[in-house]
Amino acid sequence: MRAALGAARGRIVRLLVTEALVLAVPGGLAGAGLGYVLVQILFSTAPPWIPHLEEVRLDGPVFAAILLLTVGAGLASGLVLAALLATLVPLRRALPVDPARTLRSE
Prior knowledge:
elongated, 0% strand, 3 helices
C-alpha cells in the first residue's frame, strides 16, 4: 500500500523492521518474566537433592542475553520480511506475462 502511494524503499524497510521489533520485544519481555516466575516455582517445589539448584538464577547477564537475542530476532525477521516482499512484488508483476507471446512479439 505504501509503495503504491510512493513511499521510498528505505522507509518501507524501516516500517517492516519497526513492526517486527514492536512484536518481538514484548514477546521477549513476556518470556523473561515467565522464566523468572518459573524459576521461583522451581525453587519452591524442587526437592533438595537436585545438584547445583542454588546456582540457577536469572541475573543481569541472562536478561542482557535475552534482550540481545530478542532484538536480533526482531531485526532478522523484519529484514527477511522486507527481502521477501522485495522479491514478491516483481514476481507478481511478471506472472501474468505470457512468455510465448512476449517472445513472438520481438
